[in-house]
Write a structure and sequence with these properties.
The chain is α/β, with parallel strands linked by helices. It has a single domain (2-234), classed as 3-Layer(aba) Sandwich (Rossmann fold). 40% of the residues lie in helices and 16% in strands. The chain contains 10 helices and 8 strands. The chain has helices at residues 2-5, 10-25, 43-52, 58-61, 92-105, 125-136, 157-160, 166-172, 185-197, 230-244, and strands at 7-8, 34-39, 84-86, 113-118, 142-148, 176-181, 202-207, 226-227. The mean pLDDT is 94.
C-alpha cells in the first residue's frame, strides 16, 4: 500500500504487524469484540488485518490513500476494519474504556475490547486518566496492545520523554502488564491470553522496530512517515512479494 504511493506510514505497519497478527489470529473475534485504533496513522495495519479476516478485498487495499477512497491514509470515524479510531493522539484509550464500560453495563461479559496504542501517546495525560479509571473499575475485558517502537515525529521517544519503567507504571494504575518482543507472534499471543484471563485490565507492551522485516531499507530508516523513491519502492515490493511467493 505504501510502496504504490512512494510515501506513507510504513514504520507503523512494520512495527505493529506482528502485534496485530497475534490479535487477529488469537483472541479477537470480528463482529463480537470491539477494536480501537488510537493513533490514526496506524490504520494501515488494521486495513491489512481486515483483509486477512475477509472484511476488505484486495481491490479495496489497492485504493489505499487515494482521493475519495474509504481507506484513508490516516484513520477517521468512517474507516473500515475498526470500531473506533481517533485523531489527536492520546484519545483512543478513553474511547476503549467507554466501550468496555458500556458492555459491562449491558451485562455483556462475553465481549472484549482491544485497543492499539503507541508509546508516544504515553506523553499525553488523557491516557493516564483513562488508565486510572479502567484500573479503578477493574475492566478485565479491556486489553491494550502498546506498540513500543521508540519512534515519534520529533525523534526517538526516549530522547524526548522518559517513559520507563513502562510496565511498572501501568501496574501502579491497577493493570496487569506483560513486556514482550513485539515481533514474536507466539510471545505476543501468550501475553494476550494472560492479559485476557485476569481480573484487571491488561496491557501487552510490544518492543518493536520501525524497519523490522525489510532488509532493503537503509539501516537508519525510521518510517514514521517515509518517502520511498521509485527504486526503493520497487525493492520493498519485490522483497515482500518474494517472501510471500
Amino acid at each position: 500500500m505504501v510502496a504504490r504511493h512512494g510515501f506513507g506510514y510504513l514504520g507503523q505497519a512494520l512495527s505493529s504487524a506482528e502485534l496485530m497478527a497475534a490479535l487477529v489470529a488469537g483472541p479477537y473475534r470480528p463482529g463480537i469484540d470491539e477494536l480501537v485504533c488510537s493513533p490514526g496513522h496506524y490504520i494501515i495495519v488494521f486495513y491489512a488485518a481486515a483483509f486477512e479476516t475477509g472484511a476488505l478485498s484486495a481491490s479495496d487495499l489497492a485504493t489505499y490513500g487515494d482521493d475519495g477512497s474509504k481507506l484513508e491514509a490516516i484513520g477517521t470515524e468512517s474507516s473500515p476494519g475498526v470500531d473506533l479510531t481517533t485523531g489527536s493522539l492520546g484519545q483512543g484509550l478513553s474511547g476503549a474504556v467507554g466501550l468496555a464500560m458500556a458492555q459491562r453495563l449491558r451485562g455483556r461479559d462475553d465481549v472484549s475490547t482491544y485497543a492499539l496504542l503507541s508509546d508516544g501517546e504515553m506523553e499525553e495525560g488523557q491516557v493516564w486518566e483513562a488508565a486510572m479509571f479502567a484500573g479503578h473499575h477493574q475492566l478485565s475485558r479491556l486489553t491494550v496492545l502498546l506498540n513500543a517502537n521508540d519512534s515519534q515525529v520529533d525523534g526517538p521517544v526516549s530522547s524526548i520523554t522518559t517513559l520507563e519503567p513502562i510496565a511498572a507504571k501501568w501496574q501502579s494504575f491497577g493493570w496487569d502488564a506483560y513486556d514482550v518482543d513485539g515481533h514474536d507472534v507466539d510471545a505476543v499471543g501468550d501475553a494476550l491470553a494472560a492479559a485476557g484471563a485476569g481480573d484487571r485490565p491488561g496491557i501487552v507492551i510490544g518492543r518493536t522496530s520501525t524497519n523490522h522485516g525489510l532488509s532493503v531499507l537503509p539501516p537508519d530508516a525510521d518510517g514514521h512517515f517515509i518517502k520511498l523513491p521509485p527504486e526503493l519502492a520497487a525493492a520493498v515490493r519485490a522483497e515482500v512479494e518474494g517472501r510471500l511467493a
